[in-house]
Amino acid sequence: MSATTHDPADNHPTLAELRAVAQPPEHIARYNAEHWAGALYIRHLSVHATRAMLPTGISPNGVTWLMIAVGVLGAFALPLHGLTGPLLCVVAMQLQILLDCSDGEVARWRQRFSPAGIYLDRIGHYATEAAIPVALGLRADGWSLAHPLDVGGWTVLGFLVAVLVLMNKAFTDLVHVARAKTGRPMLEDVAATTRSRVSGLAAVRRALGYLPIFRAFVAVEASLLALAAGVADVVRGDLLGTQVLVVVMVPLAVITAGGHLLGVLTSSRLD
User: Fold this and answer.
1) Could you tell me if 99 and 63 are in contact, meaning their C-beta atoms sit under 8 angstroms apart?
2) Pairwise CA distance, residues 120 & 62, whole Å
3) DSSP secondary structure string, 200-239?
4) Residue 212's pLDDT is what?
5) 224 vs 100: CA distance, rounded Å
6) Fewer Cβ atoms within 10 A, N terminus or C terminus of the chain?
7) Whose CA is closest to 94, among 155, 46, 149?
8) What share of the chain in percent tops pLDDT 90?
C-alpha cells in the first residue's frame, strides 16, 4: 500500500500498511534526519505507539505537544534526589524521541502536514535540550522545592550552556532564514552542503566525527551523561559527579557552537 492509495481516515491499519506509509525509506534515509536511537530501536517501537494512537483521534500536533511536555518535565526531574531524577530524565528522553517519531508517522498516515507541526517540533527540541543543562546546574547546586530560590554558580553555568545550545541551533535555522530572505531555494538535505571549503576545518570536522562532542547536547545523550554523573554522585555521597559534568559542558558547548558557526560560514550553505 502506498501513500497515494491508503485511506487517511482508516484508524485501524495493519502494521505493514502503517509502516509502508508512515516510515517510507526515502524519509528515514535522509541525511541527519534520524537519531541513531531511532534507526536502532525507536522506529520499531514507534509504529506500535502510532497504531495505538490513531483510534484516539489525536492530531499530529497533539502528539508533538505531548513530546514537548514529556521532554521539558523529564529534564526538570533531574534535580530530584539520588538517582530518581536522572533515571526519570533518561526514561523521559526515550519517550520523547518515540513521540517525535510518532507525530510524523501520524501526519504521514493522515496526510496532515503544516508549518505549525514543524514549528512545534523545533520548539520541543529547543526547549528540552536547553532545559537539561539548566536542570543539571540546579542539581549541582543541590536545588530543592523546599528552597526554590537557593541557587548559585552552578545554575549560572547551566544557563550559560543552555544559551550556547540555543545559539548553536539558531546557526542552523538562520541559514534557512538567510536563504529565504534572498530568494534562494531550500538546501537539499545532503552531506555535501555542510562540507567546509577550508581544508583545515574540513579535516577537523572529519576528525571530530570520531568524537562527536556535539551529541553531549542532544537530549538522549545528555540524559545518559546526567545518569552517569548521578551514579557518581550516589557512589560518592555528594554532587561532584554532576558538578564535573556541568563544568565540562561549558567548553564543549563553546567548541560546538563556535565550530558550527565557522562551518556554516565556510560551507556552500550561504551561497
Assistant:
1) yes
2) 10
3) HHHHHHHHHTTS-GGGGGSHHHHHHHHHHHHHHHHHHTSS
4) 77
5) 18
6) C
7) 46
8) 68
pTM of model > 0.90: no
Name the grid cell of 148. 526554590
C-alpha cell at 33: 534526519
Query: Is the pLDDT at 1 greater than 50, yes or no?
Result: no
CA nearest to 46, candidates 117, 128, 104: 104
Which tens digits make up the pLDDT trace of 2-16? 445 788 888 889 999
Q: Which cell goes with 6?
A: 491508503
Residues 6+ apart with CB under 8 A from 79: 85, 135, 138, 139, 143, 144
pLDDT, tens digit, 9 for 90 and up, residues 14-64: 999 999 998 887 666 554 566 778 778 888 899 999 999 999 999 999 999
pLDDT digits (tens, 9 = 90+) for 176-227: 999 999 999 988 766 666 777 777 766 666 666 666 788 899 999 999 999 9
Q: Which among 65, 89, 64 has a CA at the least distance from the CA of 76?
A: 89
Q: Burial letters for 152-177: b for 16+ Cβ neighbours within 10 Å, e otherwise? A: eebbebbbbbbebbebbbebeeebee
Q: How far apart are CA 162 and CA 130, in angstroms?
A: 4
Q: Which domains does the chain have, with CATH numbers?
A: 15-265 (1.20.120.1760)
| CB contact at 8 A, 248 and 133 | no
217 touches 125 (CB < 8 A): no
Backbone dihedral angles phi then psi of residue 8, each to the nearest 5 degrees: -60, -20
Q: What does the CA dihedral 155, 158, 159, 164 come to, rounded to 10 degrees?
A: 160
